[in-house]
What does this fold into?
Amino acid sequence: MQLLLELGIASTPLFLAALGALVTDCSGTLGIFLEGSVTMGAYLSYVLGVYSGSSWGAIIIPALAGGLVGGALGWFVTVTGANPFVAALAMNMLIGAYVSHSEALLFGSRGVLQDSRFSVLALVRDKTLYTSLSMGFALLTALVLWYALYRTPWGLRLRCSGRSLEAARLKGIRPEGYRISAWAIGSALAAAAGSLITLRLGAFVPGSTTGRGWIALVLVFLGFKKIGGVLVGTFLFSLLERIGFASQARLHIPATILLGLPFFLALMLYTVSQVIQRKQWRHHDRST
Amino acid sequence: MSVRGLLLSWGGLLLITLVVISLASPDAFSTVRAFFITPWSSPWFVGNLLDLFSLYLLTSLGVTMAFVGGTFNLGGEAQMYWGGILASLVLLRFPEGSSPFLSLLLASLVAAGIGALLGSVSGVLKRFYGADELITTFLLSLAVTPIGDYLLSGPLRDPAGNLLATPRFAPERRLPLLLPPSSLNVSLVIAFGMLGIILFFLYRTGWGYRYRIGGASPAFSRYGGNDPAAMILPSLTVSGAFHGLAGFCAVAGTAGLCHQGFSGGIGWTAITVALVARTIPLALVPSALLFAWLKTGSEIAQLQGSLDMDAATLIQALVLLLVTVQIRGDLAERLEKFLKGFPFDRWKRSPGGTTK
It folds into this structure.
């Protein structure tokens, strides 16, 4: 039971980010900007926690800022016709440069940030409160998202825009607007995931968010683009990651090498999901 | 892609640089001088700048080969890193007394080979399982980089030194310097040689033609009886090989040893260089030179204390954000009118790849 709870806590931020990736995927694009959003959320959470002294501020404002940045990027890509992948890579780079510069400016150092003003926040001090709030929030978000995507006209139009821009336009839908809203929601969820990571650690650790946005993208494929599947996929990923770390002592694997384990696992799981999907398509082709 | 498009990209890059400097620096005038003039003020600075240029040219050639073949390689950092690590292993362990040329040749082949292998993994996954190479190249890069870090901090580390690095290579097993005491070396010749090979392949061979068409217009390629998907694996493999070769040049030429994180940022800069050059191989030369100039200038400005940030990264990010923007509507018409008087069309490439 304890293990399940620990796995749940560890996988909650990743699940939120993966939900963000799923919404973005529904709009027909790969959410490469999620990596930057997670980093931004993690950093802003620390800054707001230190300066406002409020746990709520350390979650809500980074999520709103993430939504704003994601929406702005979507709008920029729509208006200028810029390549969405390249623009998203640029956004990740910009956020990295901003965080590094801002760290030096506000705290006088770059790298891990720890402050007593942050450690006293209710969500940092009280692990039970953190656990119940973060898991509850993630599950509630999943439910709301499921309803919005599969039970509302907005969700139907968003999925339609993602599958075929031309078909959506023929039906009188403006797909660009749906893409912008999906990017905003995806980025907000990723930023919330970043802030949960910082609150759990009680410090801003730049390396703790590295690659999380990319893993979130993989989890969407691993869950076969279904909310339930993403939940199971995230749990499976966290379990395998934990087994890998636990085997460190037994197999005498150097700690440095294990830093690459989550990404190796993500690559393996992504490949497996693609192989399964290919087989399903072939089976479907034969039967039709 | 027209020459005016390229000039707009490069002009935009310079404009962004000036704006960032004037906003970020308390003494904009001295920063601009440090940025633009100082890198050309002594043979030492010029040599180092050209050395960086050769690395940018090699890696951006790799990115361009992926783009032209219709793929995207985000794993350049690790491919370069591993190229350097394995090249170091060859240069350190090759039997003593054997030909230095042979050891360098073998090291370069091994470096290109490991880069190609890492690239081909993503190629196979995309070609046969439809796995998105944006995801696989990047994840593979993140997965293998820590293994390289471990090797350089453990088994390959020089026990006598304080750095997380291999021992220095024997002087005869380093690429000859061209402008001592700067780090400019034969890598520059290698980079231009590779550029020549790529230009010949792409614009003077049937294979190159099919490669370009497969990447640019898969439907047209299919109509012509070719299989555009067949270009996926070669494009990612060749792209990886160029990054691996750049790793060899960085350790055997620039540093004379392999230290942890030596490839830091070069792979990412290469993507920007290639995009600013609009993936035209010949345009990589001025583009890589501009970025090498920018990076050297940024470091000088930081050393002089006139800039307290890594402006090069910020500028690079802004350029990357703007480089694929399509100017449309009224602004496009006005720009077209403004540029009409310039004789750009003389250099414009015809669809067949030859110049008018």
In short: Residues 19 and 145 of chain A are 8 Å apart (CA to CA).
